[in-house]
Amino acid sequence: MEHQQIKNIIEAALLAAGKPVSLDVLSGLFKKRSAPDRKVLKKILESLSKDYEDRGIQLIEVGSGYRIQIKSTMTDWLTPLWEERAPRYSRALLETLALIAYRQPITRGEIEDVRGVSVSTNITRTLLERGWVRVVGHRDVPGKPAMFGTTKEFLDYFSLKRLEDLPPLSELKDFSDLNIELELPEPSPQADFLVNEDEANSSESPASQDSDQMELNDRISDKPSLATDIT
Length: 231
Known about the structure:
Helix content: 40-55%
Largest sheet: 3 strands, antiparallel
CATH superfamily of the largest domain: Winged helix-like DNA-binding domain superfamily/Winged helix DNA-binding domain
Number of domains: 2
Structural class: alpha+beta
CATH class of the largest domain: Mainly Alpha
CATH topology of the largest domain: Arc Repressor Mutant, subunit A
CATH architecture of the largest domain: Orthogonal Bundle
Distance between the termini: 36 Å
Radius of gyration: 21 Å
Shape: elongated
Strand content: 5-15%
């Protein structure tokens, strides 16, 4: 089979899949005798990636495989095509997700110790239902509390290949900025993890918010992570 034909098939498969596709799945598209080896597949994927450098789409590798997606620079232009706007979520949900990502495996109690407030059951349930976190074990202490870690779905959604690709905490000036990346299912209006109007119009000064954010970042990074690659 000619190189260009293989390239066309791979490109079409990535566009049709609507989700990340692994090398094994791509290889399975071809008959065994004509299937390109992994080295050839990777070279073709690299070639496709270069083809998209000056275009509005890109080919990236995430936790579950390879995916074609629009570039972030195109978002403003494409917004009119999206009928529903993603809901904005509270700092509580975003901080909980960040703690799990940076300090996993971590228990609910440990999250509460860092944040200084209790963690709503709605928040953990939403993150579990979304598939971004999962129970990875139980801490060997009285009560055997569940420990949470992130999943490949988390890596896929945030366009990360591995946990090491997470930005340094010092670069996260405000966890609420992550709202623009979230597209969680629309929650009920009563959900306590949804940003409400009072919170959005809070009189708290930007300087105070920045101070709180810096303090939380410091508390997250005070201790070394208990694991670096739980997916």
